[in-house]
Amino acid sequence: MGRYTPEKNSIDGINFFAGSEMPQIRAAKEASAAVRKYEPVVIAADKIKPVEASTSDDTNYTTGVDGLYGIALEDIAANEVGAVLLTGEVLSSALVVAEHVDIGALELPFRNIGIFLK
Q1: Phi-psi category of residue 109: left, alpha or beta, with phi > 0 → left and psi -120 to 50 → alpha
Q2: Could you report the per-residue pLDDT of 90-116, keeping only the tens digit for each?
Q3: Alpha helices in 47-98 (DSSP H)
Q4: Which of 4, 31, 50, 63 could make an S-S bridge to 76, C-beta 3.0–4.6 Å?
Q5: What angle do CA 28, 34, 37 make, to 5 degrees?
């Protein structure tokens, strides 16, 4: 997989990886729900799904980091297997997240599992 992946509506490249010194460890995992490329994922019952935000009052959202596992490296359909980044340095601006998910809330939990957001 190359470092630069052009978007469908752009000719400019997107740099996802932030450094080349840290090893990048990847795994193949089955998804329980559709996951987008560069989307943070959690794992439950040995299947991955996107990180989500929850709320009890429609104003204050909490980013779910329980079971944080890695970042999808490709689009993965439900019940299909795809590549997931488990360690490495990643540009936080390149992450794809669901509505109301706070990337800042992922920084420390990701660091604890070996993914460093820059």
Answers
A1: alpha
A2: 899 899 999 999 999 999 999 999 999
A3: none
A4: 31
A5: 65
